[in-house]
């Protein structure tokens, strides 16, 4: 399973560049506004993916399930640096325990970001210390859960009068949807046999 995942990744030497794989859809929804660069860390530990639950008091995406990550700051060398920095800030993940594996395709969001997903292995010994002002919980989901088509739910939502196709996964009381689910869909599509 991990071997199939590694084959699906863009190599570290060839990071993806904007626009995102969903650029046409996002342009229809939000126009040609500038997309701010962001990065997330898709951490794998013992064939499980690491997720966070954002605290309820945050001004955006409160209470939602997400990968650790955020905006690329001017001091960040690249998306990988941003993903590692954000993971340290949000969940206390020491970068010494992280081995980057590769990238997925960039994803554009309704909120005007262009996210670069960084996939990495997290050592079993790594400890998570969630920042209480940002992260309410850290939890893990087996990669096999996402590979089972029965766990993918599709639905349509209305966004400013337009029908928008969405996907979600429900795992032990957690709803994984929005940009996080879209990133997972990109991973699943890239893992499909050619």
Automatic annotation (TrEMBL):
NCBIfam families assigned to the protein according to its UniProt record, in alphabetical order: PRK10707.1 (NF007980)
Cofactor(s), names only, from the UniProt record: Mg(2+); Mn(2+)
Swiss-Prot/TrEMBL keywords: Hydrolase, Magnesium, Manganese, Metal-binding
Pfam families cross-referenced by the UniProt entry: NUDIX
Residue intervals passing through the bilayer: none
Protein's UniProt keywords contain Methyltransferase: no
Domain Nudix hydrolase: 34-165
Source organism (scientific name): Dyella flagellata
Protein name listed in UniProt: Nudix hydrolase domain-containing protein
SUPFAM superfamilies: Nudix
InterPro entries, sorted: CoAse, NUDIX_hydrolase-like_dom_sf, NUDIX_hydrolase_dom
